[in-house]
Design goal:
2 strands, 59% helix, two-stranded antiparallel ribbon, globular, mainly alpha
């Protein structure tokens, strides 16, 4: 995955109000910038999910690996300390929040975001992450 520098030319949005969406976004940014085995991302998941951190962490790593290996476009990821989010990050949060309830809409958005036609594996990874967050009592809400 290539990380584009955040500039004023990128469309920026407000940080989501949902704590679970902010956690997803933080881990997404850390793993996107520092790799799948980032200790700070793992610690954030451990701190929030306590003993049940393994499943969401491993599924998040699988999602990030799928995105990194199967995308055809550059995905703009802002630095972790940045208080605004890029259009690509908004799209990924929307995919995660809709993956279980509206899979067709999530599939179209994910396909547009990543520039990939066949996104069955990517959508499965996104749905698994959404399910892991929801099963732990932390569903990711958009916006």
């Amino acid at each position: 995955m290539t990380i584009a520098p955040t500039t004023s030319a990128l469309t920026l949005h407000d940080m989501p109000a949902c704590d679970n969406a902010r956690l997803f976004l933080f881990v997404f940014r850390r793993m996107g910038a520092h790799g799948l085995n980032d200790a700070i991302a793992a610690h954030a998941m451990l701190r929030v999910f306590r003993k049940a951190y393994r499943r969401p962490l491993m599924l998040m790593r699988a999602l990030m690996a799928d995105v990194a290996t199967q995308t055809n476009v550059t995905i703009a990821i802002a630095p972790c300390c940045f208080t605004r989010i890029t259009h690509a990050e908004v799209a990924m949060l929307t995919v995660i929040s809709r993956a279980e309830r509206q899979p067709a809409a999530a599939a179209l958005l994910l396909s547009d975001l990543l520039g990939v036609r066949h996104i069955d594996g990517l959508l499965s990874s996104a749905t698994a992450v959404a399910g892991a967050f929801a099963d732990a009592g932390r569903p990711v809400a958009e916006g």
